[in-house]
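With this grant's support, we have settled on a layout for protein records. An illustrative entry appears below exactly as we store it:
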Amino acid sequence: MFMHGNYDGTEHNLVRSPLVFDVYMGLHFWDRISVNNKAKTYIAEVIVVAEVNSISVCLMDIGKGTPFVSSLEMRPMKSSLYPASMRNQSIALQERHSRGTNSLVRYPDDPYDRLWWPWPGSSGLLNISTNETIKRYQDDIFEVPSKVLQTAVTSPATSIPLNFSWTAPTIWPEAVPGYYVNIHYTEFQKPQGHQFNTYYNGYLWTTYNPVIPPYLLAGYKYSTSQYTSDNSGFYNITLAAANTSILPPILGAFEIHYLVQHDSILTSPEDVDAMISMKTEYQVKKNWMGNPCLPESYTWIGLKCQSDGVMSRVISLNLSYNDLNGPVPDSLVNLPYLLTLFDTTNGDPCNRKSPKKKSTTVITAAIVASAILVAFLISAFIVCYFCRKQGTTSKEDREDNNIHLSDGRQFTFKELTEMTNNFSMCIGEGGFGPVFHGRLKEGCSSPTSTIGKGMEEFLAELNDCAPSVSCFLVGYCSDKNHLALIYEYMPNGSLYDHIRGKHAIAQTLRWCDRARIALEAAQGLDYLHTGCVLPIIHRDLKSHNILLGFDMVAKISDFGLSRSYLNAAQSHISVSAAGTLGYIDPEYCLSGRLTISSDVFSFGVVLLEVVTGEPPIISTAFHIVQRVKEKVAMGNIEGIVDPRFGVEYDPNSIWKVVDIALLCTKEASQERPTMSTVVAQLKDALALEEARAGGSIGDISQGGANFDLSISSLLSER
């Protein structure tokens, strides 16, 4: 909120020379504020899905007076509301009006404290109202207050339409590409009395015409994509009575939002949280405001960041001249890509160097190059660590503090260099570093090898999980500072490759094959949740991380972000949101409470991806869950399935997969099924499709514990 109130005592003539400045949400333009009345309150509102634990609001001086802000208020909302607002885009309010009233409606009538302003231009229209409570459906995505819908406007006759219009701003630094419009209504005069068609700039608003407002229930119609104008930024919405209507059109309220564009490159939420925490805890004496890495011209002083084209990460941090004392801050642990940390003021507490020393002290925080990952690497160790069986180690397994690994060959770093042709072919990026392709010489055996006690813990945990990974583990390297695991190569790439990637261009993966792969992946995830001593949460399940072997058998990969429960009574893990946009559980994002249901949500998105062939996020449309829900509501199976299937699929099989996918992606985690339930449903779906194709279902594996899980961190080419 902005109210000048002559705060600076200058008695500035705002009418003759308005004060103008821009408001940004992080890196993104939000609104331009033009103040021409010192007693008036100006309001800017935006709906944003928070990606990190803090949100930056910036006031930009554009040379027309000093920017100011009177108050900044935040209201939590359900993530299911306003589907146009997603992790990759926010929506800002242009207009919100309640019709048929002269009073502002807000909290406590609206629990989210949205401001429903009375509409000033109702000349020639009739105001109508009711004292009846207006209820709403359970899955209402706007939750308009009953008080707003208890009033409405209608025209004097069925031949007279209702209209409202607006014009896009012309003085903004960026043109508004289009708008999202929501209209709200109910019927409180005569059941099915009001029936009307809706038009946008003279064109019929194609979905759900005519509109028949539900009796004493909240109804709404909303745009699923941006409306644009070919009329110099002028927009008009018309409600005209349908031929079957006995009463004129009716309107209770409307909202108009525009898109706050997000950049394609983001700073890692994990890095943002770590830097904000460090700034707050240690009162760093630098001008650290806004986003640490972006825009690049405004990177925080003392930071160096590196971008891979999608995500920007902190790689260097200079804390000189901040008078820091005490231990190295815990926040540094949450900067996984940090290579160097500088402090030239207080010396190096780790090496007890004097602060008088003139040369710069460098504390090496991480050296990625020292841990070369070949094929399925360090992530395998992490999952082995989580999945180990409790018990003691016999004396035969430990002699002279050495560990015997019976199922893998020990390689030297020189041999790795030769196998990978000097690490010339990087085929992906795992949770802990790059993945290289290599080739073994023919006739190489895998003898029992002995490793010194420096690797004891690592290999002990790996050996405990040998039953799960021994058929894929080729060997390992522990040559001085070089640590690597060598695993079997998965030649058929990822599920993503076959749906939308390089393999999809040459050949379409049939529905029967997709259903089988989905079942195998579900069994693997069920094994992680129920087959280990304590449940493991993958935390980054997506089509890229479901790999396919020679026989197209699915294996779950990349456990770089995975977490394990600490005890059987634990209900969740408190951790900052991480994963891949489009697949992350929204409840986990908002609460920071990670559960096995978070994996279930991600798997539900993968299932919808398998059925539709579409990515979770499309820049000009809603999330895949909303897109599929709309088509399901219309019973349009042809509009859901991947058109490349043609007619080669069983509709009941598709419906069963879509049904379980929508259950997996329920907003509330307690309403989602377990992976065991998902496995059972997918078995039925596969059986239906195989019956259509004349196949047999007798060879489908039973249960998650029998699934052959590949514990690896290999990611195929993306």
